[in-house]
Write a structure and sequence with these properties.
The structure holds 2 protein chains of 2 kinds.
Chain A: H1 2-21, H2 25-45, H3 49-73, H4 85-88
Chain B: H1 2-15, H2 28-33, H3 38-91, H4 105-118, H5 123-131, H6 133-160, H7 177-199, H8 208-226, H9 228-234, H10 237-260, H11 284-308
Classes of the chains: A mainly alpha, B mainly alpha.
Chain lengths: ~90, ~300
Amino acid sequence: MEIFRIILLVTLVVCALSASFSKNILTSIVIFMSYSLVMSIIWAILQSPDLAITEAAVGAGVTSVLFFITLKKIRLISTGKKETPHEKE
Amino acid sequence: MKKNKFSRFFRWIEGGQKDSLEQKIDTGAEIRDGAVPPSSREKLYALLEAVPENRKKMENMEIRSFNRLYQVLCVLVCVIFISVLLLTVSYLPRFGGDHNPDNNEVAQRYIENGVAETGAVNLVAGMILDYRAFDTLGESCVLFTAVTCVFVLMKSLSSERTIPLTKDIMYDMSNDVILHQVVTFLFPVIMLFGVYILLNGHLGPGGGFAGGAVMGAGLMLYSLAFGEEKTERLFNERTFQVVSTCALSFYCLSKSYSFFTGANHLENIIPKGIAGNILSGGLILPLNICVGLVVACTMYGFYTLFRKGGI
């Protein structure tokens, strides 16, 4: 259990750092999603399941969807063809 | 020529834009003569061509100096902020000490008499919806205010320049078979789970906010998979207004009633019941439902506002 906890905490730090340092915004959001997921598992381990539920629903679900929609609105997500986001503007 | 002059003047009045030729061209002669001789007109054109480059240079220099100032100020503000925070931390009492301010009789009272006084097995729900219900009302109001502000912002934005929804086919997942099937199976389960968390708020972990968030996420998933038209049968702007207003008003009335009558709980109207039953805890269950409905509406409202600028 101790090892699992350490792995989770290290993953959390790595996720936080890579979310802020990644060049692609889309990748950043996906990493942020996984950050929230790891965080919710940590909440469950810390014996606060209500926070875990909220974190999983809000952090990993709603916030990421809002981010995606905003990216789509400002045309930063490409249409799936071979286009980098910067070229499309 | 006269008309041209006046139009420029009016543009300056209306737009407030600075005339790029100000103090560069002697306009006095034009006004006196009423017409521009060809030679001076040629001069004007030459000046006009020369101006943008000069302007660009000036702007570049301005931007560069602004950037330098910006960086210096960034570092300065960060250092000040960090030092203030560290200073504050150094004044905090040691973690877990016996004489900390949070180690008072309130927590003891909650733990010992909480179940008997509120009728909720889940002490957290008893605390936030019975002892501290007024704070939770404020939180719900903050959420409602936030969604209203976003509503105002996005509504005014979308009315100015509407992004056509017909071009949305690339992102519209209505034709995705896998998503369809998965959502068909998952949506009832997610909504049931949300309702379960909502109704069990006073018995187990969870409560209004968690259940509402799960329900809102489920609604968003449904709307993503099947499109807005099908979701609108279940949930449209009218539903949003009615549900959130009713829930907030009920919450506000029930709680302010008990606060204005001397902060006594409404024990007389709704009995507390046996602790551990689903129908127990007095007002906690209806208040939980209210908070959950408001949160679910707000979550889905945010989504639709971002998606198409209106619920």
